TrEMBL record:
Organism: Labrys wisconsinensis
Pfam families linked: DeoC (PF01791)
Name this polypeptide is given: Sulfofructosephosphate aldolase
Top class in the EC scheme: lyase
Higher taxonomy: Bacteria, Pseudomonadati, Pseudomonadota, Alphaproteobacteria, Hyphomicrobiales
Keywords: Lyase
Length: 290
């Protein structure tokens, strides 16, 4: 990692040196969350409105925030919805649905222009990578390498997010083991920051989670943080603490912060009373441990 990348990466951290980053880049998965709470269709405007409300309420407490192009980026920049001092990360992935998954595959989103990201005040870009045991490692590696080069050429921090997913050929599999396998494959490709699923998805007790977190620290060349998908919001702070005790540098999470307010009658009040305290608790955890 070059000196410029180190400096830019530091701008995504809290004064403690920990990452306490918010994600609002969920797309069709967020639509599905709203659909569980209402009978009428979930509109694009509804998603955009929620994302902007979450940005206004939560970014004063986050060290950085991850925003998607489809529903939020342009509006967030235009309306100055991100609090000063909160670093901005662009989601540079395009999700492709399959018959049974909202995110069946991922490609680099060519409509996310790194130069425009930087012009708009962005510091970093993020790429999600679906890791499956029956799919081509060479294809994944090539995409990650191209993404990292794309970020470097624009002077942006590169963040990769490999996630363990079921094989398509029906073979038996272990999702938890896939978290480690993905890190072995992609954790030394040169990304500035690695975003990992919580080891063992937070299950099995402290010893199991910490042992696997320590293994991730050994495998990944550079700093890494955890995401919250797959872990109940109330369980996430403990999982973050265990991971950070073994080398994780914080979190980049959305669902654990705002998932419980989806469907609230007064969204602004729910964000204030529920989501802000959740984010503050997570910040306290990483400040104390990291």
């Amino acid at each position: 990692m070059g000196a410029a990348s180190v400096t830019k990466l530091s701008s995504l951290k809290r004064p403690s040196g920990a990452f306490a980053m918010l994600a609002v880049d969920q797309r069709e998965s967020m639509r599905a969350m709203f659909a569980e709470k209402q009978s009428h269709p979930v509109t694009d405007e509804q998603l955009s409105d929620f994302k902007i409300a979450a940005l206004r309420a939560l970014t004063p407490y986050a060290s950085a925030v991850l925003i998607d192009r489809q529903f939020a980026w342009s509006r967030a920049i235009r309306e100055n919805a991100v609090a000063p001092g909160c670093g901005i990360i662009a989601a540079a992935d395009r999700f492709i649905a399959s018959a049974d998954e909202l995110v069946g595959d991922v490609v680099i989103d060519g409509e996310v222009d790194p130069e425009i990201v930087r012009r708009d005040g962005g510091i970093a870009m993020k790429l999600l990578v679906t890791w499956r045991p029956d799919e081509s490692a060479e294809k994944r590696i090539a995409m990650v390498d191209a993404f990292i080069a794309r970020c470097r050429s624009a002077g942006l921090v590169s963040i990769i997010e490999p996630v363990s997913r079921k094989p398509r050929d029906g073979r038996s599999w272990n999702a938890e083991a896939g978290i480690l396998a993905a890190a072995r494959e992609l954790g030394a490709r040169g990304a500035d920051l690695y975003k990992a699923e919580v080891p063992n998805y937070g299950k099995g007790g402290e010893a199991v989670v910490r042992q696997q977190a320590a293994e991730l620290t050994r495998i990944i060349e550079g700093p890494w943080v955890v995401l919250s998908s797959g872990v109940a919001p109330d369980d996430f702070p403990q999982a973050v603490e265990w991971a950070c005790k073994e080398g994780a540098m914080g979190f980049l999470a959305g669902r654990a912060v705002w998932r419980t307010v989806i469907g609230a009658d007064d969204m602004d009040l729910a964000l204030e009373k529920d989501s802000i305290p959740r984010l503050q608790r997570l910040c306290d955890v990483v400040d104390r441990i990291v």
